[in-house]
């Protein structure tokens, strides 16, 4: 059940939106906040600006999220939940081990390329030494599921003799994530230094295939 709204002055469109669709208002706040944090970082984003662009008020933002850092943490939680949910939808357990890893690597690359806001927010959080991730039990649990999924595929591959022994599932995850992340985080600098646009369609497809091949070679016996 949604919490009761605190009393506030005024009626109008914003008040009606809250009472008619509280979850919709919450999603609207998170979407606007995500864009502000991506553009300005945690330090530069302003709750006044976020409130002005939403279907609610500054007071209601504080009611939902406590303060700006609470709002920022909720944005992070939503974004991590989204990528983990997409990963689960791949149903890797139903695929042969090599195909499962190739599918995961290709998906991870595409997800990062198609969701640059995720990459930028992770970069913002690293500037703040991941203290908001540290304070979110939800994100911790979500990310452990990603390692468990790789562990299951890796152990099947070991039993079938298609993967080499001695690898840690987290190293497999880090390799896939790092290769996918770099293609977005360093796109602008690589373009300026080498004149190579990693996001151009042809370059993107070649890089995707190279990353899948690299990960499979890492695992090969």
TrEMBL record:
Cross-referenced InterPro entries: Homeodomain-like_sf, HTH-type_TetR-like_transc_reg, HTH_TetR, NicS_C, Tet_transcr_reg_TetR-rel_C_sf
DNA-binding found in the keyword field: yes
Region described as Disordered: spans on this chain: 1-20
Domain HTH tetR-type per the UniProt entry, residue ranges: 23-83
Keywords tagged on the record: DNA-binding
DNA-binding region: 46-65
Coiled-coil blocks: none
Keyword DNA-binding: yes
PANTHER family, A to Z: HTH-TYPE TRANSCRIPTIONAL REPRESSOR SCO4008, TRANSCRIPTIONAL REPRESSOR
Name of the molecule in the record: TetR/AcrR family transcriptional regulator
Organism (species): Bosea vestrisii
